[in-house]
User: Fold these one by one.
Assistant:
Number 1:
Amino acid sequence: MGGGWQYDTDCITWSPQGRIHQIEYAEEAVKQGSCCVGLVSKTHAVIASLKRSNSELGSYQQKIYKIDEHMGIGIAGLTPDGRLLSRYMRNECLNHRFVYGRPLPISRLVNQVADKAQIGTQRSGKRPYGVGLLVIGMHEGEPRLFNTSPSGLYDEYKAHAIGGRSQAARTYLEKTYEQYPDASLEELVLHGCKAIRESAADHDVNCKNLSLAIVTGDGNYIQLDDEATQPYVDLLKASEDAPAAAEAAPAADMDVEE
């Protein structure tokens, strides 16, 4: 083999270091996407995501998709791949409901999506899907959260974040996840918004770029975009102002004593 041999032209060629570069490129595409956060309590599952706009004149890209009455996904990575997988998941849910007369269990669907993603890592002429999914849903009254990756791996989480600067969001989740099981819906969504704020860097979190999805205890899916997210944006800003007010209060007390 010549020195110019390339190991990243397809997904079935292993490099001498034992790496498949095409899969690594797909996982890098997920890291380049805007952040998406998922978390669950005993009664609810929530996804919060940060939408991006290509220009001030353009609309924001959709980040959250409804899959079934009891299930939704948030994506990070290549939006076309996310739309393709969302259509596949919807069809699977419709077929299962038509044949068996009941909702498709979320864990089974995630397993099917992971198998479908892995096909793109094993066959010549195909490529891995360059998108990561956070899947929330309700199964027998219990909220569930799963993450799938381009490699075909999937895991279940109490809370997780994917996409750009998601490590900052995960750090926040790791510090606060013990509060989630007994949290109210409002508190759970606020924690998701705070995690998104950690990943937002210089971007301001507002009703235009924040998108929320909620699955309630009775299995109802609710999606909030634009003005519908404003109450939670207001709560987020109020929580930012509260620590500043608490720090200012002791200083004011000291001035009075002097």
Number 2:
Amino acid sequence: MSVGLVPTMGALHDGHRSLVERALAECDRVVVSVFVNPTQFAAGEDLERYPRTPDADLRSLAGLGVHAVFMPSSEAMYREDSATRVHIEGPLGSRLEAAARPGHFDGVALVVTKLFAAARPDRAYFGAKDAQQCAVVRRLAADLDSGVLVVVCPTVRDHDGLALSSRNAYLDAGDRARALAIPRALAYAAERFDAGERDAALLSSGGRELLEAEGLAVDYAAIVDPDLFLDVSEAGLGCVFVIAARMNAARLIDSLRLGVDAAPRVPGPA
């Protein structure tokens, strides 16, 4: 009997539901975890105000037909005398998202290790939007000989092209309109790549200009290899364009595999 695990932090949206549906189609039993993991939030980040909708999440998961929901407390997951940590070495644990949020991926790695131990899954399902996280989890699963197949599922986007995220709840109407620069930047790079451009610096700088033109504070906009997330000079098939940008209270990330993922469709200005 195969077991599928879908780790989430709750505030479930259609992106999460697509992961659950994929797991239900491929596994005999599916467990969904709902846990806002404190170890992946740094001091001053949005742990306390992160959206929490446990009752709605349980209703949604019951309607989908999952077989179990794991919704532990922080005290149950992390005892006061807990002394074990998981550390990600190398570029994956030090660049881009790891540099912008020190300790974040060590917290992700710790909770994923605990979830793998608790659920004993055959497959675990993650969304492609969080591309570096997916690479970290793939490395973790392999390095610890977990036997878990990490399944990365396509990013689900709203009608305007913005990737679904629980943090979208932080956006007011004006911020959301500005945030559409993120899928526009991905589409720009994808279209230029499909037209034959291979200079990674030109592709990423063009995307960054679109972000900055809308007043977004860009943490990074880079084209990297899909395994170690090192910068590349020549963009090749499957290289990943990763973006993180801030608008007031919201920090959003997105990604696209060049030559593989379809360019987001974003409406033009009204």
Number 3:
Amino acid sequence: MTTFSDPDNLTTAQRAFCLTYLANGFNASAAYKSAHPGVTDGTARTEGHRTLAIPNIKAFLDKRLAHRWKALQMDGDEVLGRIALDARADIRLAYDANGNMLPVSEWPDDLANSVVAVQQTVQGMKIVLTNKLAARRIIAEVTKRLKGPGGGTRTLARILAGDYEEDADE
């Protein structure tokens, strides 16, 4: 006879509770009822809460949540890079050489990620991009390019116009 050894030291009901808890949006009562059919709502609330405090269950959930959140996090460089793509988004990439809008599936990722909405209008389809000026301002602020004589207003104006160069004098 082969025995199953659980590396997380969870019973079958505890594992069912944990997996349901992660899948249902962190509802401990519903997870407890799923793992223990037939319990009352009151018991499910009490025991669901108590079950979350059991050390091996807490460790199991913490490990999986840490992995889940890590995959969803962006570091500062990635955020700034995505803002830079918004600042450079070129609407012309959504059209072919004849001026016809390409199917959305053919848009380059850099453009598609900067689209806020696609709307049907009387004149045809309208593409709304993220605010390029706001993106440029964020980049200027984060990279501290707004410092300088006059509060950096000339630099800001040039950044917003898209013609800022590193060696430009302020």
Number 4:
Amino acid sequence: MVVELKNSRPRHWIPPEAEIEDAPRVIFYQGRKIYFRPLEVGDEPLLRSWINDPRIWATTAHRGPLNSCREREWIESLGKSQTDYVFGIVAKESDQLIGTTGLHRIDYVTRSATFGLMIGDVDCHNRGFGTEATRLALRYAFRELNLNRVQLSVYADNWRAIRVYQKAGFVHEGCLRQALYRHGKFVDEYRFAILREGWESLPTVIPQETIA
């Protein structure tokens, strides 16, 4: 009689992390310098290092440190949501994950969503990746999801992000005075949005043939 132990593993058992590393490259949606792919559990250490970096979380609404357990739970929840699409941003030149972007709180009645962006690799700041990722996400929102409006909120003193959004066609819609708190002071919150008709009037910035 063979007794199967509860902690036994197949002879050729491979850790999940190794399976991810050896898996073929996944390209979900691509532009000129970047492409989007799904986030995987194996990305957890890198994502956790970004969100706990003061240079990153200082520009977000995130508060408090995130450990591996919470970050992993968030990644695992992505495939279950019907109202959130989150992508990993990968630089083509290095084939490395450099950030994340997403369309959140998607409302299929009003055909609207809230946009989010994080270039976590600080060495990739000011290199045009954020602008292209924003434009690529908008193309996905309007062309693939048939949305009509994409909105966002941003700290009023985060001028680097504001320039990115304006380059992508977002229009300033309002200011919530002293609505946010960071670094010991109250900060205004700016609201931006772009409508489908406004996006369609913009010059083509990502050739159709580059889209997977």
